Amino acid sequence: MRRHLEATTESFPIAGTFTISRGSKTEAEVVTCTISANEIIGRGECVPYRRYGEMIEGVLEAIRAMTPAIERGISRESLLTEMKPGAARNAIDCALFDLEAKAGGTTVAAMLGVTDLAPMITCYTISLSDPQTMAAQVAANAHRPLLKIKLGTENDAERIRAVRLAAPNARIVVDANEGWTEANIEHHLAVAAQANIELIEQPLPASNDAILAKIRRKVAICADESVHATKDLAALRDRYDAVNIKLDKTGGLTEGLAMKAEAKRLGFKIMVGCMVGTSLAMAPAVLLAADCDYADLDGPLLLARDRVPGLRYDGSLVSAPRPELWG
Questions:
Q1: To the nearest whole number, what is the mean pLDDT of the chain?
Q2: From CA 187, how far away is CA 192, in angstroms rounded?
């Protein structure tokens, strides 16, 4: 059957402003890939990320350039060698998964043998701000069981203490987004341990994280910007205790599944994370997050408007996707 590919861009407003150490944004700009065959439609969504040199126009171009390959029936496995990891390949890979499941009258979960589809706890992200504002935001969400706090400044010790005081019973992970330095990391690690923080994500720049191999710590450290695909994992074993798998980094669920298996083999804890996108982007990641240590799939909770239908969120519990959304 002949397949047809389309790629479009959409914008979804964020509820307020989403801020990390590298900047702020008020809308989520996403790229949607649609692959159809015999009136059956598969969809995938990606979020281009400037940190990795990706822009909307470039991702659209990369997806559309695969039209001849899609029309001749390229497989998801062959896609891994035809395209580099990143947002464009993610959108195509997830659309192919969706199309394959619908054409076969099944679900992606069934294809993967994922049977544990009980709702899972996702992190809920608190944007970077001054300590008082962050503490207020944390207090308003203290009922949530798992909070993710955006950090990455010289004065994060005060922020860590403030948010812990505001939510004494919540599990808390922090994400420094490469914002700490060799001069302050050990101090911040000590404060995090005192505050019973359970995970610290990407404290140092990916290009300057070798010192982590020499630092003793009581809090686990998770790689994000330092890890993209399966091939990156082995070199990180002496630096990190956990890895954050994001489909926009791996270039799709196919590579994400391989990366998850290898990360488990190497003894890493696993977080399945996301960019700020809609439920269509989260849906395949929810399946990937089954039996992982952390799910950070709160993108739709940060939006003022999500897709309809979207994923079902009950507080911080996210349920598996329904076929009318994806998979």
A1: 96
A2: 9
In Å, how far are 76, 97, 141, 193, 274 from 220, measured between CA atoms? 34, 33, 24, 10, 20
The CATH code of domain 4-106 reads 3.30.390.10
Interatomic CA distance for residues 60 and 48, integer angstroms? 10
Tokens representing 243? 């890895």
- Percent of the chain whose predicted confidence (pLDDT) is above 90: 93
* pLDDT band for position 116 (cuts 50, 70, 90): confident
* Cα–Cα distance measured from residue 284 to residue 301, given in angstroms and rounded to the nearest whole number: 17
In this predicted structure, what is the pLDDT of residue 182? 96
- Hey, what are 238's tokens? 């002496």
Q: Among 3.20.20.80, 2.40.50.100, 3.40.50.150, 3.20.20.120, what is the CATH number of 120-318?
A: 3.20.20.120
Q: What is the mean pLDDT of residues 280-294?
A: 97
What is the edge-to-edge ordering of all strands in the sheet holding 40-46? 4-20, 23-37, 40-46
Closest to 301 measured CA to CA, from 277, 326, 325, 271: 277
The answer to whether the annotation marks 291 as part of a ligand binding site is no
CB 94 within 8 A of CB 247: yes
262 marked ligand binding residue:
no
Q: Which residues are catalytic?
A: 150, 246
DSSP SS3 for 194 = helix
pTM value surpassing 0.90: yes
Please check if 116 is assigned to a binding site: no
Q: Is the pLDDT of residue 301 over 90?
A: yes
Q: How confident is the model at residue 298 (pLDDT cuts 50, 70, 90)?
A: very high
Tokens describing residue 16: 């307020």
